[in-house]
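User: I need a structural model of SGNH hydrolase from Eremomyces bilateralis CBS 781.70 for a docking pre-check later this week. Nothing fancy, just the predicted structure tokens so I can convert them on my end. Input:
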Amino acid sequence: MKALLNTIAVLCLLCPTIKAVSLRVIDARLQPRNTTVSQSVLAVLTKHDRRDVELSLNTSVVPLLLERTGITPGQGVKPGTKLRILCVGDSITVGAASGDGNGYRLQLRNNLSNDNVVFAGTEFSGGMADGYFAAWTGKTIQYVTDHVKPSLEQRPNIILLHLGTNDMTENSAISTEGNDPSGAAQRLGNLIDQMIALCPDAIIMVAMIINTCDPSQAPQTQRYQLLVAKIAQQYSSKGHKVIAVDFTTFPISQLRDCIHPADEGYREMGHYWYDFITQIPRDWIQEPVGPDPRRAGAGDSKSNSGPDPNIPPPNFGTNPVQPNSTDTVANAAGTEGRACCNDLFVTGYLWFLVFQHCFILYSILYSFLSPFLGKRSSL
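Assistant: Understood. Predicted structure tokens for SGNH hydrolase:
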């Protein structure tokens, strides 16, 4: 009996280890491999001597492209100076398909806990008290350019621009100006011109947008990412506070439907944006011009008070969420990685481990008790 108990104790000790190893194996399987676009971006920017060419402005040395460094959340960006942040984009910025409707903004605010943060914008969603932004679901760069002016007039001192996903789709009902990356890049430049004209003091962080596992949209997205970096470099060389930020390393395993992040993915986007903001030269960040935006209860319109319950849920635009599209998403991801829809594999694997452990335990018990059972039957 003592031997049996010792064996069971060893199994109990090994189970957490086996589980931990198994989860690491699963996690490694779910993680995407390095995508070709990241290598392409690196090659192009190396060709232009990105690491050697730096822009000196206001005694600050500024890289032409910011990459994630993994900085710990909660470190103050510029304590004592208000950060009036305007998030500009499409459904990804809105937070489409996120469980709480806050998108990446809640995680970003939490990471900026040691700074005085105010979100600018005329649009609203989610459960945050100040969940404002300037983004529209299923819309293109041109649409945002035509509708962003009231938000820019709130004079943010930091603008987070993640836009262009809907311009890359083959669905002409969404990409109303066409899905040519060069044309989209030109329209993005027009939007940046408007931002500089209305907010000359603002720092404009232009995202090389996150990848997609939609094979019909991936090639255009990769070309567009490269053009975004070049556009930002052109503005930086003219002395404007425009910086490209690299989202091409964002894992497609954290996408819900090949386009929109899952909840974990939105939190990851918040970490990305926070990381980029901490790399802004401190003397670039100045107090925002004018008072903070007026909100509900202070004479503002009802449209700023939150989502209207009478309005049906929005169409998420490019590739709407399809909860039952597990096989489609996994196949679209190809060898670059499993999208986020491997729940069946994970569940089956874990159940296999459970049955395996039970079988081992049964075998041990049987081998130990069978001699006694044999003696008893002989009596």
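Before docking, keep this in mind: Residues 35-304 form a domain with the Rossmann fold fold (CATH 3.40.50.1110).
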